[in-house]
Amino acid sequence: MKKQEQNSASASELLAMERTKLANIRTLLAYIRTSLAFFAASAALIQFFDKNVKLEITAYISITFGVILLIIGFIHYYRSNKWIKVINRLK
């Protein structure tokens, strides 16, 4: 009986770790999607409002935010991935 409980506990721990890995990847994809939205918005501002200096400055600021967000997303992903590997080694 105890062995069966141990197997189910280890299976649930394994599934929980897989869910954590998938959540980490999903978070990275959300960062990428958001930064792409900033890039698309800034491209639209530059393309359609090239005469307006204020909107052009806003577009370049938006590009900067997109790049910063992309970098933050990758840093978060690699840090979380490192901690996931550490936790896997402890078990």
Automatic annotation (TrEMBL):
Xref: InterPro entries: DUF202 (IPR003807)
Transmembrane segments: 28-49, 55-78
Membrane topology per record: Multi-pass membrane protein
Keyword presence, Membrane: yes
Cellular compartments per GO CC: endomembrane system
Subcellular location: Endomembrane system
Entry annotated with the keyword Cell inner membrane: no
Domain DUF202: 19-82
Keywords: Membrane, Transmembrane, Transmembrane helix
Pfam families: DUF202 (PF02656)
The protein's name in its UniProt record: DUF202 domain-containing protein
